[in-house]
Design brief:
There is one protein chain. With 299 residues, this protein is mainly α. The longest helix has 32 residues.
Amino acid sequence: MEKQPPAWSRLLDLSDKALAVLLLAPAGLLLSLIIVYPVLRLVYTSFFSLSLTSGLPAEFVGLENYQLMIEDPVFWETTWNTVLITLITVPGALVVGMALALLANLPFRRQWPVRLSLLIPWALPLSFAGLIFAWFFHSEYGVVNDVLARFGIEGVIWFNSPSLAFAAICLTIIWKTSSFMALIILAGLQTIPRSLYEAADVDGAGRVRQFFEITLPLLKPAIVVALIFRTITALQTFDIPFMMTGGGPGTSTATLAMYIHQNTVSFLDLGYGSALAVVMFALSMCVTVIYLRIIRTKE
């Protein structure tokens, strides 16, 4: 009778596809535990009326939380504020980050101070950045009003005006996130061969033409990656407006993440808060799918 080989030796004869599935199975299981299960649990909770302050047990209400959301003016206001912050700060951070990356990529004798300066805003905690800029825009002893006064311009009360408060928040977010964009774009710049620019110099192409015909096309993958991460985090904006204005005046600067926090942490309404979180998760996934489709069409 022919002797069967041991089980461990048969693993060496697996096909490439079977071996890939076997090796990826632990990572897939871990992702299921820390991502898939919480998301499914969130969706499940959104179908219940679950308020910890009422003392009543959870009751299945179907789509009632989502119906309440449609009729909730604060939901629409905070969602619009979130979308507007995304539309303003993501392109703003991209433009500023591109300029910083190009500056950091110049052949300085000592490049580390320039590149270190890019890390400081990115490494700063979001809540700390919000506190710093809340002081900058303070109406009585803020730096911004002090600078305006030195130029003979009367200071303004930034956080009493919805439009001015919103502008201050957007400027803060752009300052905080542009360094992140710059680091990713700088990494993309490092992969562009210098020989392309040398050949362009021989052909008589100027710096502007080199940027649009060499730098920008080759930077598109890095830019798309930066936009994906920045857009998703912009849709989840919480710390900076929370620390600067607390959502005020009224709810004019409140974001969807702040409204979720208010319902779940302050009001302990887990059912409605979960429904709001599902909507924010869906927005993030839609943006990711759109970016991935853009990448596929350009390949």
